[in-house]
Fold this sequence. Notes:
By secondary structure, the chain is of the alpha/beta class.
Amino acid sequence: xxxxxxxxxxxxxxxxxxxxxxxxxxxxxxxxxxxxxxxxxxxxxxxxxxxxxxxxxxxxxxxxxxxxxxxxxxxxxxxxxxxxxxxxxxxxxxxxxxxxxxxxxxxxxxxxxxxxxxxxxxxxxxxxxxxxxxxxxxxxxxxxxxxxxxxxxxxxxxxxxxxxxxxxxxxxxxxxxxxxxxxxxxxxxxxxxxxxxxxxxxxxxxxxxxxxxxxxxxxxxxxxxxxxxxxxxxxxxxxxxxxxxxxxxxxxxxxxxxxxxxxxxxxxxxxxxxxxxxxxxxxxxxxxxxxxxxxxxxxxxxxxxxxxxxxxxxxxxxxxxxxxxxxxxxxx
Length: 332
């Protein structure tokens, strides 16, 4: 593939995506903008000490093998484009080119905030934003499709940039062979059981997506890095069977579980998905669900971020105590 289909590229450009090479992209996050404007910061700042204004929201692979009903991103099939036309299967960009491009595009994105840096705090943050210290590989698509992912992580780490990799877990063989591992590895949790999973994520290519997903969860406790299960809860869709979620947590034994409420934005507003504003749980509903889940899984509530409607559970006292990232160790 030499380029993205024009209909997809035009739509994504209109939505604020900046493209890097043939198959990667970055986009400013609401909380990156907030950080530059001196406003409310991201849950990653509250939970893990990530400087929102120094964070690149990105992906090295725009295509995805799932079509989750609640996903706020663009689903290409809804625009008549097969998912595999969004990946460069025979001509992938090199990691160094991607890292350079992502940093360059991020600097372009934040450049406009210099004009509103009218306080000492904003001026300092604007200067710091030009030297990113963190990258979230989670923007859109499935990053484990990128075949040079290990080298990409290594390149970021060598530059002192921490990495949060978010994956849907359908490619366990990729995760198993990652070297190095990301600073923090997220596995998305969309459902508590196979029946709900298939209804929610709508796999595009793999009839055994649940089996492969469970293979990833079973592997998680053996990995030598920080691990997270990130739940997105949608009223009327996947808030059933809380015992099933507790079982998944016991299987994976992650350091952290993020219990987050669905947001009715972007692609999730597509009428064909059948979701509504009423599908959004309130923060109090998320907090109640997280408390019950903590009891069933024997995790402990550690923190919350009301603007994002998210509650953090920790596996034990050690995880709770050590949740703030030590940036001085990145790349060592």
